[in-house]
Write a structure and sequence with these properties.
The chain is mainly alpha-helical and 403 residues long. The radius of gyration is 21 Å and the shape is globular. 46% of the residues are buried. The C terminus is likely disordered.
Length: 403
Amino acid sequence: MLVALFAAFPVSLALGNVLMTLVLVLWLISGHWRERWASWRGNPVAWIAAALYLWMLLGVLYTPAPWADVQQHLQKYFKLLFMLVVISLMTSDEWRRRALWAYAAALMFILISTYFNIWWQLPWSRTQNQGWGQDHTVVKDYIAQGLLMSMAVLLALGGAMYRGWSKWSRSVCLVLACAGLLSITHLSAGRTGYLCVLAVLGAFALFAVGGRVRLWLLASVFVISAGLYLSSSAMQERVAQAVAEARSHDSGNLELTSIGQRMYFAEKTWGLIQERPWLGWGTGAYHEQFCRVADTETWCEAGRFHPHNQFLFIWVEHGVVGLALLLALMAAPLYAVFNQTGPRAIVYAGFSGLFVVGSMTHGSLWLSTESHLFTLMGALLASAPWSQQSCSQGRPACGLGKR
């Protein structure tokens, strides 16, 4: 059921939620609590995720928010606890590989659909426009698809560096990585995806190999990034639009533009943080407090759901402790491979980078698709380097791929 969940959530959240519920029920009735505890005991990600959710529960004690908002937050962030379920089940390399292949298959479906949508109107595609250079978002919105496709590029680059595969297989991975990059930069209007591309390529340059070759890879990443930008009119238009929206906001224009909204939300949320920086306002308090300081009812309705920034969202409600736990959750994959190079290091470091980008521009743990991505994939990656079963048997990799 858990492998099926990894195949389902990128394309169907409804099916993913059903499978998540089934996994939880089966996990609760299956027992094996001693083995469960062993998988958590030495795993820092399990403790960080549990601590962050516990801190949110403590925030219920002092929040001024109505119960409906509190309940919504506890439901949204419950996936932090579900990370412990995934970690306790994915204790073997075999099951981790199955989950990873299921997830990769779902991403390949999205990637292939994106290119098919250039010529044909696919009934399951969110966009119904043909032609090269158009926005071909297949699932959810272009922010979510940009994150998913960036994860696909990251996995493909890791596969291209995996020496355990044949040259043919590694070449296929490289082709898929290039196709994924072009789908983000040339077939999507999502600026978050553009930042994700930089995070993924940066992780590849820094963690693929060591020594002087790393400098050449960094230079190559710069050239590739410049080439992608110069060859994509859609990308140039979206970047120019972002600059214009930012300047418009600075001049006092309060239009509901994408960048203008984010800047306005950040200003008001930062003001709320300064009022209660240490403990925050409490679980679920952001919605009413934002409307309290919003200048108009229009801005209240635009920004009351979330501030389009997970860092500020956690900080305003859960203070410095909540922010520190969030940062620790993001940094854990990078910490696990900090002094390593190779495919595993690329994937882990790149995942941390994507987590940061998704949190800067949207609600990485709040919105459905993003939270599925970062909690489920985060737990899958976390189950590998600190897995009690793998490491206790002296396996050199203790991860998804051997160097």
